[in-house]
Fold this sequence. Notes:
Layout: E1 2-9, E2 13-21, H1 24-52, H2 56-71, E3 74-80
Helix pairs in contact: 1-2
Amino acid sequence: MKWMLVVLVGGMTxxxxxxxxxxxxxxxxxxxxxxxxxxxxxxxxxxxxxxxxPKRRDxxxxxxxxxxxxxxxxxxxIPHGAGxxxxxxxxPSSSSSPQPQPGAxxxxxxxxxx
Length: 114
């Protein structure tokens, strides 16, 4: 079985990376490297911010925001079918749903009530 690395941006929104691995351990290693890159980027930003943001309160707010932005991203490995698997169920055919006639005008919509 193959494994794909997916990034959960902000810990919630999945983003496909198209990175596919033969072994689960390799996928998890890539996820660990990704987390390290995010942590390194945060540390570099933090060093810059500590030198360039004069007010401690502004620095603290910016640091919290940057930490959420960078460190809230997480990776996970999911099974990846290489196209050799059959779908569990086929999608419904579109021939049973009514199709709009070409050249037909759209039906009028009711106006807002006031």
